[in-house]
Amino acid sequence: ETVLTQSPATLSLSPGARATLSCRASQSVSTYLAWYQQKPGQAPRLLIYDASNRATGIPARFSGSGSGTDFTLTISSLEPEDFAVYYCQQRSNWPRTFGQGTKVEIK
Amino acid sequence: EVQLLDSGGDLVQPGGSLRLSCAASGFTFTGFALSWVRQAPGKGLEWVSSISVSGGSTYYADSAKGRFTISRDNSKNTVYMQMNNLGAEDTAIYYCAAGSASTSYAFNIWGQGATVTVSS
User: Fold this and answer.
1) Rounded to an integer, what distance in angstroms lies between the CA atom of residue B57 and that of residue B33?
2) B21 confidence band (pLDDT: 50, 70, 90)
3) What is the pLDDT at residue A95?
4) Rounded alpha-carbon distances, angstroms, from residue A92 to A41, A70, B35
5) Does A17 touch chain B (CB under 8 A)?
6) Which chain A residue shows the shortest CA-CA distance from B46?
7) Strand, coil or helix: what is B52?
8) pLDDT, tens digit (0-9, with 9 covering 90-100), for B100-120
């Protein structure tokens, strides 16, 4: 099983700040990594697929990078609606796995 | 409107069974692989099971193997998950999720979730 480890667990930032979230895989997943955003009481929403491709309708302030075992989600300038929990997920092999999540909270 | 509508969540006793359904609308169901992802109270996301576009291939997390069965009816645009021998550890919100080749089968469409509570 591919274990995904996200860091930090919590990121405390102010609106307008840059957010950098990390996801590390226990083995290579090539670029088969996605990022999701989840707000309280809502289903997750796809942000990024294949490490760096934004899903339809996702603002350009969200960007993804990485390959192999190390991946990054960057939010260039936090908007109020961006404070949420973010998960990475790999589709390189079975079972599909998610990271434990990074909570981005208002400082 | 593109939509997945989850249903079938309920309170069930330990050892009991439940069938979840997820009805799709607004998109070409036969072009999407379908999955179930669950979230225990206050916890993160856990992939449970997936079924291929044709329905010919199914995949399960170890926690679901032997107890859960995923299936799809392309004539009804619906995916199901039969869950047997439920335990307290299965208490969670169960989300149906869909992905197609256009997003490299990442979960692009999500249902609103069905709540399963296993308790006596």
Assistant:
1) 10
2) very high
3) 96
4) 29, 14, 15
5) no
6) A98
7) coil
8) 989 999 999 999 999 999 999
